Amino acid sequence: MFYDLNVPYAADDHEISQTLSFLAELGYTTVALSQTITGKLPSNINPPKLPTNPPTSLKLLTRLNLTLSDPAQNQRLTSLTQLYDIIAVRPLNEKMLLNACTNLECDVISLDLSVRQPYHFKFKMLSAAIARGIRLEICYGPGVTGSGADARRNLIGNAMALIRATRGRGIIVSSEARRALGVRAPWDVINLTCVWGLSQERGKEAICEEARKVVALAKLKRTSWRGVIDVVHGGQAGTKEESATKQKQSSRKKVVEKQTEMVAGDSLKRKASVSSELVAEEPEKPLSKREMKRRAKKARLDARGGVLDSNKVSTE
Fold it and tell me: pTM score > 0.85 for this model?
């Protein structure tokens, strides 16, 4: 599963359908359509409507990019998490980068690496963001779409510095391509990361595993309280009724098992009584002809003996 979590989008963009179709052909499965806001946040912010008839193999997400240069601009970030699937910030100076790494409730820190940065990336500052579950984003679009040799050189140098400062951890790679010509295939992106200093395995994680973690953690923040989830049922229709019936069946099974154990214990203690009851309950077998003759003969002998005894008594 390949992710591209930064595709600029506006409601009046007529080329977005071609871009999405090309992304689906390249093998991407999840795409985030981003909306960028610079300066003071407006009073009413709503994500644009998703394009109609997107490719069926693509899962579309909404994303908000906030360009921040003043700490007073981040007061409403918590309320925006319910409107967008992903919240990303783009700090313009070192002070805002430090604030984003340590305090801001965001999902992604996206840096414009196509321009020369007036500060150095520090491991302690960036590792604080990674420890909080925030990923650092590298956008390759501005450096490969004909923006000039300076933009390409700055992208390579800044990406290498960022990878060196983060030890290659917590990095995702997105396109930020406004047209289909600026999008690259997943394995081409992995080759780019190898040029920047990442291994091939880490480069694949940047567009697969790390990007998936961004989506999962963002969903976790929206649907839970401080990362605590209460799973009521599995989400299928009629699961509550099925669980109730299963509980009843399991309780009945336990009762039957207990009864059988009690009966088994009684049978071990009172084998004789149980065997006698079993013998009494067995049906009587019919007498054979030989047994009937033997009993008749015995009865005649008993009758003769009784007559002889009575005659003897009378004579005496």
Answer: no
